[in-house]
Design brief:
The protein is an alpha/beta fold. Helix content is 44%, strand content 17%. The radius of gyration is 25 Å and the shape is globular.
């Protein structure tokens, strides 16, 4: 009997001890892993640096407020050095080794296109910052594009040329993915609008002198000139344009919608026109403009943190992150198929770069109203009505 009581006593003690252990601190929930491949160095650092800064800033802010679904966000970023081959390798690492729940980025069209086969094969929601229409045409189930398209930018520029009475233009585009696609879209639109492209030149993304191409444009009878490219080369083209004393109006694509372009091009940037999201002209928007509040809030938070000018490219990263959070909250999980479906169903989503309305046939979700035409005056972007 004593032995039985002793065993019972030991059993009770073990049960109590086990209970104490099981009542200890709960195991922390797995983080929501957000992967990103960005061009934070190299020619496209113009794009990738503000994108990385934005993602880090807002992941930190979201986590400070408790995370998403009670889980912290974990941001995993790789720098592709503006090399699309590296982007492909890092995308593979994010998917197969880091087990990310979704990806925000690449920075450029080239990097994005290199990543698409991997994200689609592995069913990973992919919100990218590439500019070319080919990214979402045709629509791919898991790929969503955040910036306005090259076609939209070309349309905005050519509409402005038409309004000013220009019927002959020169086109200078880079040989990368964004420049090639932008050139193609511009040529098609120009033909349909009755604007003749009398000089069609190109340059390499890493070129440091574009004088020969611009000299050919100067020798033509072009009435206006459009530079279609990203990175630092368009700022070099702008300086070369000034050095050769061209007087025809100079336009850029939205790939230069940043104060960084103004700093790089210096005084040569005065008078340059380009399409831009509301962000760069937010201070001058009407109080009832739906883009004003969100643009000014993002601008204030970013500039307070980093003490540098806000960039539309960082704005794309902001929109991608916030869309991801909204989709995850809507489905209550990180199930990739469900998150993809929620992204495709986003309606009236107010982002820094416009009001997004995704559909099964439109994985960009922006219309022409998301663009403003701006001119650089006194070193600042001013909206042109």
């Amino acid at each position: 009997m004593k032995i039985i009581n002793l065993l019972r006593s030991s059993t009770v003690s073990m049960m109590l001890l086990t209970g104490l252990y099981s009542a200890g601190p709960a195991v922390a929930a797995e983080p929501i892993r957000i992967g990103s491949v960005l061009s934070t160095t190299g020619p496209a650092s113009f794009l990738g640096d503000p994108e990385e800064k934005t993602l880090k800033l807002y992941v930190e802010r979201i986590n400070a407020e408790g995370g998403v679904l009670g889980r912290k966000l974990e941001l995993i970023v790789y720098d592709d050095g503006s090399d699309s081959n590296k982007a492909n390798g890092f995308a593979k690492r994010l998917i197969l080794q880091d087990n990310v729940d979704l990806i925000v980025g690449g920075s450029s069209t080239g990097s994005t296109m290199a990543m698409i086969p991997l994200v689609e094969a592995n069913n990973v929601p992919f919100l990218n910052m590439g500019g070319a229409s080919v990214i979402v045409e045709p629509v791919r189930p898991f790929t969503f594009k955040l910036p306005h398209s090259d076609r939209m930018a070309a349309q905005k520029v050519l509409d402005d040329m038409k309004k000013r009475g220009f019927t002959k233009m020169a086109l200078l585009s880079d040989t990368g993915g964004f420049g090639k696609s932008g050139r193609s879209e511009t040529l098609k639109l120009a033909q349909s609008m009755g604007i003749a492209v009398v000089s069609d030149q190109n340059y390499g993304e890493k070129d440091t002198d574009i004088t020969p191409q611009i000299q050919k444009i100067k020798s033509s009878d072009a009435q206006a000139m459009l530079v279609f490219g990203t990175g630092q080369a368009p700022a070099i083209a702008t300086k070369n344009y000034q050095q050769l004393a061209l007087t025809i109006p100079l336009y850029m694509s939205h790939g230069q919608a940043s104060m960084e372009f103004v700093k790089l091009a210096g005084k040569a940037s005065e008078g340059v026109r380009m399409p831009t999201p509301a962000l760069l002209v937010a201070d001058h928007l009407a109080d009832n403009d739906p883009q004003k509040r969100i643009s000014l809030d993002y601008k204030r938070i970013y500039e307070d943190r980093y003490k540098i000018d806000v960039s539309t490219f960082g704005g794309y990263a902001y929109d991608g992150l916030m869309m991801s959070v909204a989709a995850i909250k809507k489905v209550g999980s990180t199930d990739k198929v469900k998150v993809r479906a929620a992204l495709e169903q986003l309606k009236n989503f107010y982002g820094v770069n416009g009001i997004y309305n995704m559909t099964a046939t439109d994985h960009m979700g922006l219309d022409q109203q998301a663009f403003r035409m701006a001119e650089i005056k006194g070193g600042k972007f001013v909206e042109i009505k």
